[in-house]
């Protein structure tokens, strides 16, 4: 990272602070921020050349207006000014050369392109700037006015055949090609393919009858397809292809070339570009042969509308002759770019053009301009580009990516780097390409991306991409063999810093996505101090912060990630997920996303992308962040290096994990691997200053402060006050109360007679930074005798104590208050010591943690204090300088923590007692003696324990407590007898204390009314699973919160009947699995044959997952291990029609292929289930959240 980026960041921060003081106006703040950018446009000296729509290219161009005689004045075109500049700088520069462009629209016939001859030199820049107070714009569009109509609905105009186009605009609103189905909201307006065209899966797809209208002459017809891969689920790329043929008889569409992926069943598509589809306002059809444009305007009369067709894709270019002979040192300031085409006919997967395009370029500045209504990427820096500064731009309604830094794949050449993207608003990208991000970084490094607001993107807000170099080990790139030792030499997506960005409403039309996303081998990137909020996954799955394959060495820190998945029908699997190596996820605040499946997740990588290992999840807050705390998919212990000092809050009181071996609850997780994880993490709802009002500052007495968790200043996240396109009428949405004195968030500390200045900052609905008028702000103290505040926000400390200062802003109907507590003469008064394991075995360790509490109730960490540890008996418990205590001999010892206040010299001490024993209680497991309780039924609890040496625990001397969180649903008495009271869900907590060691376990119980099923069907429960089955309209609805059918014992709900087999007879169970509600990626429903009623019975289970994948799981010995085999892929809502047949100790799995109209064998299993067989459907959720499966055509036959 270049040094200038560090001081520039400080300047930006300074501009924010200054903007919110009462003494400075917004205009002054804007000028302060602009001063960081090679001089302010407002304060710039007289220009060297001028361009005006009133000018003449025959004039000198040295004055900004025509003279009175009309013989001299500004140039008329930018091309003429460019020529004059070239001539002026040819022999060198002694100062900047400035071209000032007067207001108005400058239409282009050809791209305005700058090269080496146009470059600044000798340390100076060539500057093209808009005139102060005016808006100048480059337009690639031509207004169409010569319309005719025969019906007053569809209008026609001749636009010529020389420059066909793929998009157009009416009154700055994008129009679309005539299409079917018609365009709607995101995700609407698509059909779904059917079947799978094995012979040509990337070029052909099937369609349902009626999904494509009968069309004559399809010569210009196109299909826009999200090819979903073999499963149809993937939505990574949207392709636009010409249609070669439509086979109406077989309902097959053939395209002119391959799509990016296979077009599996359920892939989304629509057809476009045919005159018969011209049936909605805003649609057009261009007959390329005749040059006739047919259009249905959004508004009438048409002659009063500004309708523009683009003539160019690339509007503005900066193209060097080579990397050694670049275009450089050109500033484009305050001049807009608009009305560009997409040129989609010629586009490949790697889009290689932009409305503003540069390559072989250095030190180019694009600032303070509007870039809108274009079909390509807004700003594309392709290949060798260094020192680009994209600052203060308003980028909206973009065909592809807003801003893209794009280096090359599969190379060692590190040539796209050291660029900055700062203080831009990017909104409405992917209008044509569909799979686009707001800001893209591809094989580009050492870039600074900050203070941007990115919203309304179909895929990522910010997307990183890199060469997946692990897949190239053993090959040769750039003539160099790629090895494990040198593979990092091929990594360019490295050392990027993303901070203070405001990201929202992403993922609107794709899946397997995130607001911040990284894929490919990356190194040392930082995503910190960003506001990630108000977004959802609308189908399939995704994340908020997504470190996908080979994302290594990230720092994810100090981010506020809130209100995820409050809308959307898909699954937010987690707010943060990592697949890579050595990622540090530290001090993030994840809150108010209750519909997410989890707060944090890891995923084991596949397809030779390398391991997932050595990741850190430390000092984070997960506050109502999802249904589970963690979801470690394909868990292995190396995935996490450390996970600790985190704060959790679940309103339900259920702290559970998904997919983590041997850890279902947070308590289990803390016990796993001998207490490796989250030993100092806590569960508490007291975290924030004002959680109901989404005030996420830490409360002064929150234990999170003592754990070293820092406050996150959201006021600085997003656009700077210097943003030139802020809407002064945009209403206030949020306010912040800040201070210039020592303190943190909601707390301000002062000594007697000290003063502090308060400042109120604000953000509008659209994210603009504002400073409320002093007249609209009122300050009040609830105890002026302790701390008073005047009308200007000056706080004065008067005597020791605590006072709450409240600032209220009332402006234009907006009324909001925010407060902070002022602590006067407060001092640390006591220590709080946490010993995660107060009972140790020989050689076992526990790490002590301590924090301080002040006399007025503040909680503080001990940073800055001299902390020491001592043991009363080093022969029993030894403790080192870091607070790690080790059991070295049997008995008990006091370990004392001492902390010295550096200001007063006061010593605070606190001791904890630690015992050392030979073996201790390690864990509990509770089950019901009678499974599947209905109201009025009771069952004993069966509780087993294990000791730390692996032996069964003798619990006869243990003391017990039992508690139900819903005694109106399930009660439990002092003897552990559980009674179902009514229908619903409850949690029983069982706690045992054995020789000073306390362990708890939870049992989730769902009570249903007794089933009324057609004979001989019945429901059985295994493990701790709850659930039921209902029968209506010939279908079964099976509900289950079971965990799995796997390992040596199963946990699921089984809808079944019993079959007795005679010698030579076979039993077959057949069912159509119509749906499986996603509670976890591994939730399952499928046909099962089972040898008996025990949890570890032998079985075969042919099951479907929520994404349509199938798995065959089998156990061939009683209480033995399980094995699996992959099965065929199915597509919901059609589901899978599947069966299992058992004959002579051989089970055969098969599925019905509707295209071939026959059953297809999957495989055989050698498994002896005996003569008394259970046959039916097994369902589990792999979550305590209930899944649901619809099962039809369920049948058991013996023959």
From TrEMBL:
Matches recorded under InterPro entries: Big_2, Invasin/intimin_cell_adhesion, PbH1, Pectin_lyas_fold, Pectin_lyase_fold/virulence
Key word Signal present: yes
Keywords: Signal
Span of the signal peptide: 1-28
Name of one Pfam family that matches: Big_2
Occurrences of domain BIG2 (ranges): 742-819, 827-909, 920-1002
Domain of life of the native organism: Bacteria
PANTHER family, A to Z: RIGHT HANDED BETA HELIX DOMAIN-CONTAINING PROTEIN, SECRETED PROTEIN-RELATED
Annotated protein name in UniProt: BIG2 domain-containing protein
């Amino acid at each position: 990272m270049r040094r200038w980026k560090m001081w520039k960041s400080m300047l930006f921060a300074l501009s924010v602070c200054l903007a919110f003081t009462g003494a400075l106006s917004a205009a002054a703040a804007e000028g302060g921020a602009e001063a960081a950018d090679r001089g302010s446009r407002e304060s710039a000296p007289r220009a060297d050349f001028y361009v005006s729509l009133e000018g003449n290219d025959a004039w000198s161009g040295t004055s900004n207006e025509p003279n009175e005689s009309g013989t001299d004045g500004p140039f008329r075109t930018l091309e003429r000014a460019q020529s004059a500049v070239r001539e002026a700088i040819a022999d060198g520069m002694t100062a900047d050369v400035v071209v000032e462009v007067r207001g108005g629209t400058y239409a282009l016939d050809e791209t305005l392109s700058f090269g080496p001859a146009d470059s600044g030199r000798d340390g100076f820049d060539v500057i093209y700037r808009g005139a102060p107070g005016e808006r100048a714009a480059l337009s690639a569009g031509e207004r169409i006015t010569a319309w005719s109509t025969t019906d007053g609905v569809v209008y026609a105009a001749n636009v010529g055949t020389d420059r066909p186009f793929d998009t157009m605009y009416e009154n700055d609103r994008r129009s679309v090609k005539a299409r079917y189905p018609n365009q709607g909201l995101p995700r609407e307006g698509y059909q779904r393919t059917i079947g799978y065209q094995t012979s040509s899966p990337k070029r052909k797809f099937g369609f349902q009858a009626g999904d494509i209208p009968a069309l004559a002459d399809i010569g210009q017809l196109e299909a826009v397809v999200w090819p979903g891969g073999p499963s149809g689920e993937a939505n990574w790329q949207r392709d636009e292809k010409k249609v070669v043929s439509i086979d109406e008889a077989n309902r097959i569409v053939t395209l002119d070339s391959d799509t990016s992926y296979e077009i599996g069943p359920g892939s989304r598509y629509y057809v476009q570009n045919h005159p018969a589809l011209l049936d909605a306002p805003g649609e057009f059809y261009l007959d390329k042969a005749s040059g006739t444009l047919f259009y249905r305007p959004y508004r009438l009369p048409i002659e009063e509308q500004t309708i523009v067709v683009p003539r160019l894709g690339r509007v503005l270019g900066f193209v060097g002759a080579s990397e050694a002979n670049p275009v450089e040192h050109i500033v484009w300031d305050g001049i807009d770019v608009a009305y560009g085409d997409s040129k989609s006919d010629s586009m490949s997967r790697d889009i290689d053009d932009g409305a503003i395009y540069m390559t072989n370029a250095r030190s180019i500045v694009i600032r303070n301009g509007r870039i809108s209504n274009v079909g390509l990427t807004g700003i594309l820096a392709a290949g060798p580009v260094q020192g680009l500064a994209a600052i203060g731009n308003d980028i909206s309604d973009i065909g592809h990516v807003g801003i893209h830094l794009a280096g090359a794949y599969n190379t060692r050449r590190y040539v796209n780097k050291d660029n900055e993207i700062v203080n831009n608003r990017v909104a409405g990208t992917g209008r044509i390409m569909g799979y686009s991000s707001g800001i893209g970084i591809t094989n580009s490094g050492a870039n600074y991306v900050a203070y941007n607001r990115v919203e309304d993107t179909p895929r990522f807000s910010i997307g990183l991409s890199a060469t997946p170099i692990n897949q190239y080990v053993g090959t040769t790139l750039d003539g160099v063999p790629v090895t494990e030792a040198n593979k990092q030499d091929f990594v360019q997506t490295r050392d990027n810093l993303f901070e203070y960005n405001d990201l929202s409403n992403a993922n609107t039309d794709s899946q397997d996505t995130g607001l911040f996303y990284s894929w490919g081998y990356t190194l040392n990137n930082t995503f910190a101090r960003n506001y990630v909020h108000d977004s959802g996954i609308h189908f399939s799955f995704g994340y908020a912060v997504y470190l996908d394959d080979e994302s290594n060495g990230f720092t994810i820190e100090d981010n506020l990630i809130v209100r995820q998945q409050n809308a959307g029908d898909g699954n937010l699997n987690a707010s943060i997920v990592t697949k890579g190596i050595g990622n540090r996820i530290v001090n993030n605040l994840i809150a108010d996303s209750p519909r997410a499946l989890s707060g944090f997740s890891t995923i084991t990588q596949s397809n030779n992308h390398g391991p997932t290992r050595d990741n850190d999840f430390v000092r984070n807050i997960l506050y109502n962040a999802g249904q589970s705390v963690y979801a470690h998919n394909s868990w292995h212990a190396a995935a996490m290096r450390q996970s600790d000092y985190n704060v959790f809050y679940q309103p339900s009181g259920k702290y559970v994990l998904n997919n983590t071996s041997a850890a279902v609850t947070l308590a289990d997780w803390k016990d796993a691997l001998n207490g490796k994880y989250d030993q100092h993490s806590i569960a508490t709802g007291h975290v924030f200053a004002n959680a109901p009002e989404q005030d996420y500052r830490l409360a002064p007495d929150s234990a999170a402060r003592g754990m070293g968790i820092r406050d996150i200043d959201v006021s600085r996240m997003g656009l700077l006050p210097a943003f030139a396109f802020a809407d002064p009428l945009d209403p206030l949405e949020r306010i912040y109360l800040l201070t210039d004195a020592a303190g943190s968030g909601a707390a301000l500390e002062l000594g007697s007679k000290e003063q502090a200045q308060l400042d109120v900052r604000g953000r509008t609905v659209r994210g603009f930074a504002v400073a409320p008028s002093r007249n609209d702000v009122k300050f009040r103290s609830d105890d002026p005798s302790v701390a008073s505040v005047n009308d200007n926000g000056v706080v004065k400390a008067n005597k020791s104590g605590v006072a709450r200062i409240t600032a209220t802003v009332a402006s234009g109907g907006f009324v909001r208050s925010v407060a902070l507590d002022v602590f006067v003469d407060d001092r640390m008064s006591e220590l709080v010591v946490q010993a995660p394991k107060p009972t140790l075995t020989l050689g076992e360790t526990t790490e002590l943690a301590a924090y301080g509490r002040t006399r007025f109730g503040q909680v503080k960490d001990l940073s800055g204090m001299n902390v020491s540890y001592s043991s009363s008996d080093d022969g029993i418990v030894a403790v080192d300088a870091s607070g790690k205590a080790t059991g070295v001999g049997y008995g008990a010892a006091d370990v004392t923590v001492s902390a010295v206040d550096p200001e007063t010299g006061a010593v605070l001490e606190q001791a904890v007692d630690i015992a050392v024993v030979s073996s201790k209680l390690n864990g509990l497991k509770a089950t019901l003696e009678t499974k599947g309780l209905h109201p009025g039924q009771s069952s004993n609890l069966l509780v087993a324990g294990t000791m730390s040496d692996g032996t069964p625990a003798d619990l006869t001397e243990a003391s017990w407590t039992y508690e139900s969180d819903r005694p109106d649903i399930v009660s439990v008495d002092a003897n552990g007898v559980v009674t179902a009271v009514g229908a619903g869900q409850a949690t029983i907590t069982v706690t045992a204390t054995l020789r000073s060691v306390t362990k708890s376990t939870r049992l989730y119980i769902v009570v249903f009314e007794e089933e009324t099923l057609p004979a001989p069907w019945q429901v059985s429960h295994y493990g701790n699973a709850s659930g039921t089955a209902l029968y209506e309209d010939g279908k079964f609805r099976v509900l289950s919160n079971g965990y799995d059918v796997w390992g040596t014992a199963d946990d699921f709900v089984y809808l079944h009947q019993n079959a007795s087999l005679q010698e030579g007879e076979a039993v077959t169970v057949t069912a159509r699995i119509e749906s499986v509600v996603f509670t976890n990626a591994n939730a399952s429903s499928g046909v099962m044959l089972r040898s008996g009623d025990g949890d570890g019975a032998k079985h075969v289970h042919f099951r479907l997952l929520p994404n349509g994948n199938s798995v065959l799981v089998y156990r061939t010995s009683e209480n033995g291990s399980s094995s699996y085999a992959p099965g065929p892929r199915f597509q919901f809502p059609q589901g899978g029609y599947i069966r299992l047949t058992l004959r002579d100790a051989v089970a055969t799995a098969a599925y019905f292929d509707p295209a071939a109209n026959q059953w297809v064998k999957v495989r055989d299993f050698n498994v002896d289930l005996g003569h008394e067989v259970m046959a039916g459907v097994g369902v589990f959720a792999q979550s305590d959240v209930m899944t649901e499966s619809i099962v039809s055509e369920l049948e058991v036959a013996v023959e």
